[in-house]
Amino acid sequence: MENESLKKNTLLGLGNPLLDISAIVEQEFLIKYELKPNDAILADAEKHKNLYAELVEKYKTEYIAGGSVQNALRVCQWLIGKPSVTTFFGCVGEDNYSKVLNQRAVSEGVNARYQYTGAEPTGTCAVLVTGHHRSLCANLGAANCFTIDHILLPDNKKLVNTARFYYISGFFLTVSPPSIMEVANVALANDRPLAMNLSAPFISQFYKEPLMQVLPYVDVLFGNETEAETFAQEQDFGTKDIKEIAIKLCNMPKQNEKRSRVVVLTQGVHPVILAHNGKIKEFPVKVLPADQLVDTNGAGDAFAGGFLSQYIQGRDLTVSIKCGMWAARQIVQRSGCTFDGKANFDPAEE
Predict the structure, then answer these.
(1) Which residues are annotated as active site (predicted)?
(2) Are 116 and 13 in contact (CB under 8 A)?
């Protein structure tokens, strides 16, 4: 039976819409452009200026709708199977890439409310696959041009005010902290959950001020072990123990004291860590045979989307995490954050 509480615009996300340009490359390609496996960085204007052209010219590339939050919302919609439950805000260029992104988002049920700019082309992300690893190098382009004006437009402001859950990426801290704080304050004023992803180690290192400004408003925090360890190091937690870090993240200052913070940390093939109310729970990961693993691009986004698809329906945290793990397992068996057919998640089988 369809969940009656799942109305249109239940979950609203802000992020960077990017078109992924994905290819299998050699380790030498990463070395040439000073990139690491399983990392995510912003492109350097000088260092990476030839990367995208060389990638398209020398390798067999796939173009896949991407961007962390948009991916998570697409996965969430796939699991829910009811259109327009999610709304997405982000900035794109007035070009063919934005048409591809919009077509994919809309066809998969996301209500994409893009801000358009003629100043920059639609953002792209080089997804460099080496074995089972992926290195992400994002050229934000138009995504960097998002302004708070867009969410203050009357129709968009109404969507912000009426959504019941919110999701933002750490990546968006590099673009529009005022937009994030606008949404965070709406969430706080209306006692609605705000979820956020640490996104990448460099966010904790180089965007500390906006990160620490929004963190007190965050009710659900996602991250992986590398992101969590980097955050802990930058904030002088004095430990590398992932469970201790999770508890410390829970206990950081929080604006809405009615709801204790939930921290969810993934660790690849190692157990997912849930920290809540001073307690830790671990969830073992079902490890896929090597021949079923295609690439890990989008696994973290899929996990967040899977988790949120259950969380916004009021399911408990255990079911939400099991759905996140299920969704990530589906995505790593395909190229990029893609899926097909009807989602058949069954918590009893997880």
Answers:
(1) 301
(2) no
